[in-house]
Hints:
The protein is mainly β. It is built from no helices and eleven strands. It starts with a strand and ends with a strand. 32% of the residues are buried. The model has no long low-confidence stretch (mean pLDDT 96).
Amino acid sequence: QVRLVESGGGLVQAGGSLKLSCTASGTIFSSNAMGWYRQAPGKQRDWVATIASGGSNVKDSVKGRFIISRDNAKNTVYLQMNSLEPEDTAVYYCFCVPTGGTVVWGQGTQVTVSS
């Protein structure tokens, strides 16, 4: 069974950077999609970025600021967040889609950007 553990959230001033990490335990292949969603207070969970062996994609509103990457040897996906804005404040959730399984979610990590 796949489990995800996230780290790297915190409090940062606007314009700053944070790097989130998410490590999967269990059987994961490079072809299995991994990525990030976020949920701001009072809002629905919103897709941010995905990466798999076929490539990666990020939400239009964070393109040029957020970079998703992956280390398959470590079963870890990263989200480098630069030029952070107060609107990026949210709980960030890692996800993974195991082969033949349902989506697995991490516990979430809080990112707070102060103005």
